[in-house]
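Hello forum,

I keep getting stuck at the same step: I have a sequence, I want structure tokens, and every attempt I make locally crashes halfway through. Rather than fight my setup again tonight, could one of you with a working pipeline run this one for me? It's a single chain of 68 residues.
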Amino acid sequence: MADDLSVTREGDTLVIRIPINAPTPSASGKTLVVASTRGNQTTAVQIEGKDLYLGVNAYVYAEPKGGR
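Reply #2:
Ran it on my machine without issues. Output:
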């Protein structure tokens, strides 16, 4: 699993904890990635006896979008 990624189940809620890093350019350069699993990762959580996989990308736009 990605470094420092924590995935747990609390009842009907999936809790994902992933550290926020300094923004780094995405492959396209349109966004700056601040947290990522770097692809799909298997977790310790199971749903109906099946392993749960997770893919997370958190980012900001490199340039303001839509005049914001």
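The beta strands are 6-10, 13-17, 24-25, 31-36, 41-47, 50-54, 57-61. If your local run keeps crashing, start a new thread with the error log.
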